[in-house]
Design goal:
The chain has about 180 residues and is mostly helical. It has a two-stranded antiparallel sheet. The longest helix is centred in the last third of the chain and has 37 residues.
Length: about 180
């Protein structure tokens, strides 16, 4: 079994903690029951893009579970979907080239194509399907919730996730310019 690097373990813990705080305390109601606009997903996308699928999956899953445990209770279908979202975005981390200033227009487009596809898989596929299978929820209710959450997360990651990755990439490119004299 391949061991996780210290960097992966630390980034996963940081992702889970920040996701928890944002999920718990930075929510904007959408008008659809139990469905909010949550900036935590922009952060999750950035961390998955920087540190890969393990960080994205576990950071999202753990952070979402902690947020739900401390509010209204665990709802596994959505927590699993959050983990899958982080996993899918993180699987393409090498394509984004966010290290060293490489996050340019082409990488921004790739990042956003991946996140849109991943959000559709998770919020129009995984979460509603698991809601129906695990909790016998009414299909029309969970498809509406999933669609609204998916659209919110797509916009959130498009704006916040892209800005965070772009800013990180710019900072990284500047910090590598130091030379020994």
């Amino acid at each position: 079994m391949k061991q996780l690097s210290v960097k992966t373990v630390v980034s996963t813990g940081v992702t889970a903690a920040l996701f928890f705080v944002l999920m718990r305390f930075a929510r904007i109601p959408t008008g659809i029951p139990n469905t909010d606009f949550v900036p935590a997903y922009g952060l999750l996308a950035m961390m998955a893009a920087l540190f890969g699928p393990v960080c994205g999956a576990l950071g999202g899953l753990i952070g979402h579970v902690l947020a739900d445990v401390t509010s209204y209770g665990i709802w596994w279908s959505w927590e699993i979907a959050t983990g899958v979202l982080g996993l899918l975005i993180g699987l393409f981390a090498k394509w984004y080239k966010a290290e060293g200033g490489g996050f340019q227009l082409r990488q921004i487009i790739v990042f956003n194509v991946v996140q849109v596809a991943a959000n559709l898989v998770c919020w129009v596929g995984v979460a509603p399907s698991l809601d129906i299978l695990m909790y016998a929820e009414p299909a029309d209710k969970v498809w509406l919730q999933g669609l609204v959450a998916g659209i919110g997360n797509i916009v959130n990651i498009l704006v916040l996730g892209t800005i965070l990755l772009y800013a990180y990439s710019r900072i990284q490119s500047q910090s590598t310019d130091l030379k020994k004299e």
